[in-house]
Write a structure and sequence with these properties.
Order of helices and strands: EEEHEHEHHEEEHEHEHHHEEEHEEH
Number of helices: 11
Structural class: alpha+beta
CATH topology of the largest domain: L-amino peptidase D-ALA esterase/amidase
Distance between the termini: 20 Å
Shape: globular
CATH superfamily of the largest domain: L-amino peptidase D-ALA esterase/amidase
Low-confidence stretches: none
CATH class of the largest domain: Alpha Beta
Largest sheet: 6 strands, mixed
Mean pLDDT: 94
Number of strands: 15
Radius of gyration: 22 Å
CATH architecture of the largest domain: 4-Layer Sandwich
Oligomer: single chain
């Protein structure tokens, strides 16, 4: 079950990126669960990673390899997170990188590993290694959609996005994929995300771009408030479009490129929410009139992650008292509830801290029946505005997670 059409549109190949998919059968026999990205020599890579203290071995190793130089290959497996696996988990991550490096003639440090799936189980390295030749034989510039399917776990559909802009008469492509449906409150990126462009971007600026785009997108979503052990998102710049390096925010090409990258990141982040486990509603929680970004996010997440609000959304029940209660417990110092207005869609439900005189249950119920809903909260404390994207909680969310390992 997911919200919206899920149409991926045209996925443009990115010059300098080839992708291959193989079957290791890590969780299910025959499952296409191994993805390899080959990056052209000279490509630059930057990333953001989970803040979870129980961070997975591949995350730790990917960060270490990225600090040692620019990678040539990204190795992704699903079905096993290689998290909570101690020293043996790091050895397995290192062995995986060494195996791919041996097959491709690069140093192990030129491989970034990524894993997603069940936490606490040993990675079956022999299965993953056996699938690598198949993935390498499959390398193709047009395999973005296949890769989007290959990195799925509890996702019900692939997630991908592509944009093109023209700079100095040359077409610049930005294409990306993401995966995630549960254990979603990234606090850095998404479960897994890979975005590439054929623009040439200086390394320091590339890190700024991925950090800023992440903050505006993957750091504004939540399905269940759980931050994964394996979150990772990378931005690749191959430099194959033939334009000079974009080396600073003052470069004339920077604004258009940064906006296009940001659009791709937001689309991929919203796609995760639309495919949230058991989701029947796509919900935007907009906090307006906040004094700071911090207090806007406190209020936004308090509402977006409230089980009572989320179950009311699933039931299409305009129980607006649950929204007020969530706002009140958000922990905003000195919050004057007598100043707060709340809209459900275009219906004013609470005004100056109480039920709006114009509100009717029928009007609220009509909005709640919609598949896409906006909850807008005006705190009247300043001019900061933030949006959190979330889902409802359905019976299927419990079912999916109760049966995850079966």
């Amino acid at each position: 079950m997911a919200v919206g059409s899920g149409d991926l549109g045209t996925l443009h190949p990115v010059k300098g990126v080839r992708i291959g998919i193989g079957s290791a059968g890590i969780k299910k026999p025959g499952r296409k669960d191994t993805v390899v990205f080959e990056l052209a020599e000279g490509s630059r890579v930057a990333g953001t990673f989970t803040t979870n203290a129980f961070c997975a071995a591949p995350v730790t190793l990917a960060k270490r390899h990225l600090a040692q130089g620019q990678p040539r290959y990204l190795l992704v497996n699903t079905g096993n997170a290689n998290a909570g696996t101690g020293d043996i988990g790091m050895q397995d991550a290192e062995s995986s990188c060494a195996a791919l490096a041996s097959l491709t003639g690069v140093a192990p440090q030129a491989v970034l590993p990524f894993s997603t799936g069940v936490i606490g189980e040993k990675l079956p390295v022999e299965k993953l290694t056996a699938a690598m030749p198949q993935a390498l034989a499959d390398l193709d510039a047009n395999h973005w959609e296949a890769a989007a399917s290959g990195i799925m776990t509890t996702d019900t559909r692939p997630k991908a996005c592509s944009r093109q802009i023209v700079l100095d008469g040359r077409t610049i492509t930005i294409t990306g994929i993401s995966k995630g449906a549960g254990m979603i409150k990234p606090n850095m990126a998404t479960m897994l995300g890979y975005v590439a462009t054929d623009a040439a971007i200086a390394p320091a600026l590339l890190q700024t771009l991925v950090s800023d785009a992440t903050e505006a997108s993957f750091n504004r979503i939540t399905v269940d408030g759980d931050t994964s052990t394996n979150d990772a998102c990378v931005l690749v710049a191959t430099g194959q479009a033939g334009l000079e390096d974009i080396d600073s925010a003052e470069h004339p090409h920077f604004p258009a490129l940064a906006e296009a990258i940001r659009e791709v990141f937001i689309h991929l982040a919203q796609a995760i929410v639309r495919d949230g486990e058991g989701a029947t509603k796509f919900v935007s929680v907009v906090v307006d009139g906040a004094g700071t970004t911090e207090e806007a996010l406190k209020v936004g997440y308090a509402v977006a992650e409230s089980p009572l609000v989320k179950t009311a959304l699933f039931a299409s029940d305009p129980n607006w008292g649950r929204i007020l209660a969530a706002i009140g417990r958000a922990g905003v110092s000195g919050l004057d509830v007598s100043q707060i207005d709340v809209h459900l869609g275009d219906v004013l439900i609470a005004e100056r801290g109480g039920r709006a005189a114009s509100y009717t249950e029928a009007a609220g119920a009509a909005v709640m029946k919609q598949e896409e809903i906006a909850i807008t909260i005006n705190l009247r404390r300043g001019d900061v505005r933030e949006t959190i994207w979330t889902t409802d909680f359905s019976y299927d969310y419990v079912k999916i997670n109760a049966e995850y390992r079966s």
